[in-house]
Amino acid sequence: MDAAFTEEQDEIRRTLREVLQKRCGPDEVKAAVGTAAGYDEPLWRQLAEQLGLPGLGLPTEYGGAGCGPTELVLACEEAGRTLLPSPLFSTAVLAAPLIADLGTEQQRADLLPRIAAGAVTVALALPGGLGTALGLTGPNDGSWAGGGRAGGIQARQEPDGAGWRLYGQADQVLGGHSAGLLLVAAHAGGYAAARTRLFLVDGDAAGVVRTRLTALDETRPEARIELRDVAAVPLGGDEAADPGPALARAGELAAAALAAEAVGAADQALASTVEYVQVREQFGRPVGSFQAVKHRLADLYVQVQAARSAAYYAAWAAAASEGDLPVAGPLALAQALEALRSVAGEAIQLHGGVGFTWEHHAHLYFKRAASDELLFGPVHLLRARAADRAGLFGPAVATASAAPAVPVVATASTGSTAAGSAA
């Protein structure tokens, strides 16, 4: 099989990189996160209208580009390179696939074209933590949503059966403070017959209280969503299926996209560090000429390239799996988060005194590494979940993908790897 990227995939990477290099430098990032939306709205409109970024993974019949997980992962890698503050992850990676998977035909026809055009952003509200609800760090059996007891978010059907009302709270909702639409997981049916369902909620509906939280990583804004007897529409209609499998599939794509984001961030942090040690001098010679520094940078380079290969393979596995859940996503995410944490820490160290100042951009990458592990990890649970799925230490909790392994080789010059056209 041909494991190289296609011309179209390379063009997506090149075009997005050019735009972000011009519009999303460290100063622009710091200015964007301070706005009410938490991101540069004109830049987001440009990415939506000119590049079709939010609709990259959506079918053409709904206004999307008709691409697959590989193209979306490549876009996330470039977004991670500049730490782009945007609704890309919350809308295109988390919410849109769930709407396409579980929504009724009318819901898909109404929402997906607007998402693809960038006219609406969506936030996924999952009580109990993203890692568990997406099946990355534990079984997403629904207990994370409140279990029908106090806590989480509860759903109550109107006495006449005409609609649903939600009440409860979800924290750490990515982009929830500014999203036009909320996709909320709630428990319906009371404790005895409770089951988790997904509901669509207007972000500005009466009874919705949204509070932007102070987050470690300001480039990935978080919010607390309080629902006080809010009108909601069930995703998929009244007879919708259990969203657990769909959330797990979304978790595989999210893991691949997050891994690619971390790889892009690590690659950029490493490149800026290599550039700096070539001009910073100590004892009359560049710091980068010392053998100890060369060894440290070489080790980081190997980590980044290995994580890149794992992220690309996870994208291929997410596209190739047919009903079965591969273990590549959590493993790739664990490896990429470790790589970013190592690179960001070394970047601060090797930049010397200036690297320890809060104003330096190295801290943005370090905060992204720490924040993503808190949101979607920790790393040891990602690996433990993958081991459970694969049945390494007992019966498998989910059948691993039977797809054959694909050789993935990263190239230093372009950063491209295998799994391109395979997806």
Automatic annotation (TrEMBL):
GO terms for molecular function: oxidoreductase activity. Residues 6-118 form the Acyl-CoA dehydrogenase/oxidase N-terminal domain. It comes from the Bacteria. The keyword Nuclease does not apply. Gene3D superfamilies: Acyl-CoA dehydrogenase/oxidase, N-terminal domain (1.10.540.10), Butyryl-CoA Dehydrogenase, subunit A, domain 2 (2.40.110.10), Butyryl-CoA Dehydrogenase, subunit A, domain 3 (1.20.140.10). Keywords: FAD, Flavoprotein, Oxidoreductase. Residues 256-389 form the Acyl-CoA dehydrogenase/oxidase C-terminal domain. Signal peptide: none annotated. Its EC number is 1.-.-.-. InterPro entries: Acyl-CoA_Oxase/DH_mid-dom_sf, AcylCo_DH-like_C, AcylCo_DH/oxidase_C, AcylCoA_DH/ox_N, AcylCoA_DH/ox_N_sf, AcylCoA_DH/oxidase_NM_dom_sf. Pfam families: Acyl-CoA_dh_1, Acyl-CoA_dh_N. It is an enzyme of class 1 (oxidoreductase). Its cofactor is FAD. Belongs to the acyl-CoA dehydrogenase family. PANTHER family: ACYL-COA DEHYDROGENASE (PTHR43884), ACYL-COA DEHYDROGENASE FADE28 (PTHR43884:SF20). This is Acyl-CoA dehydrogenase family protein.
